[in-house]
């Protein structure tokens, strides 16, 4: 029952990614291991967004279960991950959704 | 280099008081006592220089490979300090610019929610097992209770506190998950939480102690005022029922005619078995004679014996009171199984503070008469 709830939530959230999910998937367009993902997220968000290790490992486990990312290399304790084709599609959909949102805002707010 | 010095502190806070525990560890580190390991009752601290640390307690995540998780934490600057069955404690120096473990709190709360559900299940099962244990022992132990008086309550003292602690543990996790957003506030209130725990713990200890003292007191008094040191004056033998001349005790039965005496705080009793042959037929009498401290305890014993022998798995399925029926030759109390004349029946009788429990008898009428005859002489 717990398992089901977890998966359900993941699927639901994958319709629209949360901020940490979005950034982690962006970072994983190149193969990276755990801590490197945290650094990359900080880099691509220009320091505006950080992912803590607790949040990161839970999300990695969930993504892997959902086959959104896959293991790229296993160097003992530090595993390297890379986004899958399915994950790339999810990320692209989210990017387009966000862009639509921003464009709509632009028309009205005009910033 | 000098040997590292450790010190132990009693853990007043329970495991799932997460925020309060974190605040406690931080405060100890500020005094130069750095968490080293956590046990069931104590936490061990390493003595050193006062340091400002942030502690973070994480439930162990069984779905995820621990080594990989630890590598990520380590790289991010969080050091694993101590582990318990269900928890891992991490720390990092305050000034280190390290990122907080949970930047997305909803994920953390989801994890705790899972632990809560699992704990709910195990608490419920534990409660159920505890209640079944209590119910079963209440059913099974009337005889034991009769012998031992209050002492038979002793095992409950292991069951009840444990049940209480289980419920308490669940309560703490439940309330933490429910008010997860109050994490920081709970942290600043940790000293109050410790005070509360000290009070609760003290109250539980006091109640346990009082119960124990009262049990010991009752037992001691019973022992001090025990009027009984002799075995019951007599037991009913086959000779008295059938007459000595009618019985043959073959050699193979001689060693089987057993008598043994025992005493408890409120009774002395004799256990016996008597075998012989009469007119070529095997006859037997199994008996227990109890001499109770007083008539009141003798009455309790009668009740306990009736309950005991009424168990479905014994052959005496229909035990009925005969005290005021014509079959009673004059006992103060009398219970008989309905097969007491026809086959292997049972007689439970009381005369004064003597209680007779004669089972697996043949010729029940003869036995009853012989028993009453002797019992009346004893008065």
Provide an overview of this structure:
- The complex is a heterodimer of chains A (111) and B (379).
- Chain A has 111 residues and is an alpha+beta fold.
- Chain A has helices at residues 2-15, 19-27, 34-44, 53-65, 85-109, and strands at 32-33, 69-75, 78-83.
- Chain A has a single domain, classed as Orthogonal Bundle (Arc Repressor Mutant, subunit A).
- Chain A contains 5 helices and 3 strands, in the order H-H-E-H-H-E-E-H.
- In chain A, helix 2 (19-27) crosses helix 3.
- The radius of gyration of chain A is 15 Å and the shape is globular.
- Chain B folds into 3 domains: 6-96, no CATH class; 105-190 and 204-224; 238-378, Protein Transport Mog1p, Chain A, CATH 3.40.1000.
- Chain B contains 11 helices and 14 strands.
- Chain B has helices spanning 18-30, 66-75, 105-140, 142-148, 156-178, 183-188, 190-224, 238-242, 251-254, 295-309, 364-378; strands spanning 6-10, 33-38, 42-47, 53-59, 79-83, 87-93, 247-248, 258-263, 267-278, 281-292, 319-321, 333-337, 345-351, 354-361.
- In chain B, strands 7, 8, 9, 10, 11, 12, 13 and 14 form an 8-stranded antiparallel beta sheet that branches. Chain B has a 3-stranded antiparallel beta sheet with strand order 1-3-2. Chain B has a 3-stranded antiparallel beta sheet with strand order 4-6-5.
- In chain B, 27% of the residues are buried.
- The A-B interface holds A 1-2, 6, 9, 18-20, 34-35, 38, 50-59, 61, 77-79 and B 56, 58, 61, 63-64, 67-73, 75-76, 78, 99-104, 107-108, 110-111, 114, 117-118.
Keywords:
heterodimer, A: 111 residues, Arc Repressor Mutant, subunit A, three-stranded antiparallel beta sheet, 5 helices, globular, disordered N terminus, B: 379 residues, alpha+beta, Protein Transport Mog1p, Chain A, 11 helices, elongated
């Amino acid at each position: 029952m717990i398992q089901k709830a977890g998966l359900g939530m993941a699927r639901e959230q994958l319709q629209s990614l949360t901020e940490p999910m979005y950034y982690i998937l962006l970072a994983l367009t190149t193969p990276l291991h755990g801590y490197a993902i945290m650094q990359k997220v900080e880099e691509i968000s220009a320091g505006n967004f950080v992912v803590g290790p607790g949040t990161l490992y839970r999300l990695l486990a969930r993504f892997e279960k959902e086959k959104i990312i896959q293991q790229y290399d296993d160097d003992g304790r530090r595993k390297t991950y890379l986004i899958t084709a399915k994950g790339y599609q999810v990320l692209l959909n989210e990017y387009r959704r966000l862009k639509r949102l921003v464009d709509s805002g632009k028309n009205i707010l005009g910033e | 280099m000098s040997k590292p010095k450790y010190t132990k502190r009693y853990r007043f806070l329970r495991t799932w008081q997460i925020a309060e525990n974190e605040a406690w560890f931080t405060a100890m580190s500020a005094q130069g006592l750095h968490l080293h390991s956590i046990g069931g009752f104590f936490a061990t601290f390493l003595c050193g220089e006062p340091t400002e640390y942030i502690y973070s307690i994480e439930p162990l995540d069984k779905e995820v490979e621990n080594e990989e998780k630890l590598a990520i934490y380590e790289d991010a600057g969080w050091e694993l300090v101590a582990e318990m069955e269900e928890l891992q404690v991490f720390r990092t120096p305050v000034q280190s610019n390290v990122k907080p473990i949970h930047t997305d709190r909803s994920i953390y709360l989801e994890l705790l929610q899972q632990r809560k559900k699992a704990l709910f299940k195990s608490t419920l099962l534990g409660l159920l097992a505890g209640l079944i244990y209590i119910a079963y022992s209440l059913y099974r132990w009337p005889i034991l209770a009769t012998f031992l008086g209050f002492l038979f309550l002793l095992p409950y003292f292991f069951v009840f506190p444990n049940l209480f602690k289980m419920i308490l543990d669940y309560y703490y996790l439940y309330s933490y998950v429910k008010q997860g957003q109050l994490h920081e506030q709970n942290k600043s209130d940790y000293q109050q939480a410790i005070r509360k725990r000290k009070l609760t713990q003290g109250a539980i200890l006091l109640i346990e102690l009082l119960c124990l003292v009262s049990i010991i007191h009752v037992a001691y008094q019973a022992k001090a005022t025990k009027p009984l040191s002799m075995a019951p004056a007599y037991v009913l033998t086959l000779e008295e029922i059938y007459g000595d001349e009618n019985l043959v005790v073959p050699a193979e039965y001689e060693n089987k005619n057993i008598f043994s005496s025992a005493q408890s705080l409120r009774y002395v009793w004799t256990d016996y078995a008597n075998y012989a042959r009469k007119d070529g037929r095997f006859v037997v009498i199994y008996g227990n004679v109890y001499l109770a401290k007083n008539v009141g305890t003798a009455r309790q014993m009668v009740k306990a014996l009736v309950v005991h022998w009424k168990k479905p798995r014994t052959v005496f399925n229909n035990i009925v009171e005969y005290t005021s029926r014509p079959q009673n030759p004059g006992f103060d109390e009398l219970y008989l199984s309905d097969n007491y004349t026809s086959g292997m029946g049972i007689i439970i009788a009381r005369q004064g503070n003597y209680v007779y429990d004669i089972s697996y008898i043949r010729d029940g009428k003869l036995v009853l008469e012989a028993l009453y005859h002797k019992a009346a002489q004893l008065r």
